[in-house]
Amino acid sequence: MSRLLTEAVHLTMADQALTLKVLAPEDEPAFLRLHQEVFGSSADPVWFHWKYKLGQAVGMSLWSGERMVAHCGGIPRSVWHHGELKQDLQIGDVMVSPEWRGALTRQNPFFHVSEGLYQSFVGAGKAFFMGFGFPNDRHLRLAVKLGIGWRIGEVHQLKWLVHSDKPAASLGWFWRSDLVVKIGNNPIGAPNQTPNNVSGFDKS
Question: Which of 38, 52, 109, 147 is the most exposed place for a label (fewest CB within 10 A)?
């Protein structure tokens, strides 16, 4: 697949007929069922409207009959690239129904929805300049193994624990922003750093 997916693509996997297509508004009920099945979430039509309609998120879905069995989505983000503002796609809502996760083929459901999304929306002449995401270690290893993504670094999240009996001066340094230091006149505790993987997808 090397072009925009404008029509549904029919596939066969494990002797079962599957259909790959761009997520459409009428797919909301099937999407929500899969989201709840995979993540145990409480996602509802209001959330879907906020993210995929108001938020203009896009998605690629894989179907077995009338049932969605896999999906890969993305949310538009404005990102500066070497001084130039571009539209990127933050990958999310990557999910595969449990019974389809063990497909013994390189081009499994995860591959098809991910590659379909990247080829259709990401790269030169397409809606988004590049794609990026924050996968866990297992998903990142799978993406690298399948050749549809790679590790580009880590993002560190800083957290401060507030202690009423610990003066901020004990840190030995301050944020330059008075707003951060003085919110509620509470002292600030020591930061914790939690690394998150960053993966990149560029189909240009």
Answer: 147
As beta bridge partners, residue 88 has 77
Q: What does the buried/exposed string (b/e) look like for 82-117 if buried means 16 or more CB atoms within 10 Å of the residue's CB?
A: eeeeeebbbbbbbbbbeebeebeeeebbbbbbbbbb
| Element at 158 (helix H, strand E) | strand 150-160
Local confidence band at 143 (pLDDT 50, 70, 90 cut-offs) = confident
Structural domains for the chain:
9-140 (3.40.630.30)
Torsion of CA 201, 115, 33, 18, to 10 degrees: 180
Tokens in use for 88?
A: 């990127």
- What's the rounded Cα separation, in Å, for the pair 31 and 68? 7
Residues in the chain, overall count: 204
Q: Residue 31, CB half-sphere, CA atoms under 13 Å: how many?
A: 26
Query: pTM of this prediction?
Result: 0.72
Q: Is the pLDDT of residue 183 over 50?
A: no
Q: Are 152 and 178 in contact (CB under 8 A)?
A: no
| Gap between the Cα atoms of 106 and 109, Å rounded | 9
